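Sanity check

After download, print the first record. It should look like this:
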Amino acid sequence: MLHYLIPVVVLGAWLAIKQPWRLAVAVAEPRAGGRKVEGAGWFGNYYPAMSGASRPGILVIGGSEGGLHPQVDRDARTLHRAGYSVLALSFFRGPGQGAELALVPIELFLGALDWLREQPEVDGARLGIIGMSKGAEAALLVASQYPDLAAVVAAVPSSVVWPGFDWSKFRGLKESSWSLGGKALTALPYGRMTWSKGVRSIYEAGLADLPAHPDTVIPVERSQAAILLICAGKDQVWPSCRMAEQVSARLLAHGAKPAVVLTYPDADHGVFASPLEAGDKPRRFGFGRPAEGNSQAQADSWQRTVQFLEESLA
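Expected structure tokens:
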């Protein structure tokens, strides 16, 4: 019996020490052409457009990894090379910021957009926002509160407000991810996890109870912006295609400007990314191998995102 117990004890000790579920915080330094900037509760890398005429400004925000991930910074630099003024943002887990994704003020993002709009090289009438995963959830909330937005790109988005998350203990929180006006935005409770289906089952079970929580739906119809939604058929984190369809349906039901929806059946949660640079490694989500369709989906979704921004911010 002892020879069965020893490996279990060793594995338990390794898990307790290494805690592989704890996602490391990355804070990318600005590269050539950029500088570090900060505001109320946020900081980021700002890449101002170099042309003489004022150009559109774009706010880029990452997901539940927090900090300022190198991919978020790479997205910003890639857009900067296309002629935009771009602010890559850290909204939690960065130095001086909260460690939990909980009750993050939407005003933080509104303030970052205000800062971006005030820059001399930015045309304040042509503002856009790009968010991925929890950043997409935030981007759609921001769009419902910021009438001056002209374009929104929400990659693997959410249609509702979800509770927060604590990486240090790898657990969901009861508190809402977001607040507005000092009050928590009502969040759709997580559902019960089905271990054979993984994390995604928490969100699927939560959405099954959505009719009882209509006040958790993001009021996207309040936005005047053009909206691009990007979703993945093999999303292992949450059902992004189902939620993208819910966002699109809500816009249509309220007579708002319809969204553009890009669906990639063979991609997973890593469906969206700017082209890799030398030394970059593709981002991974969860355990296991990335979906085989990711590379093609990333190339196509990025190209179509750039086209969408050119048209929406013309």
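If your output differs, re-run the checksum step. Summary of this record's structure: The chain has a mean pLDDT of 91.
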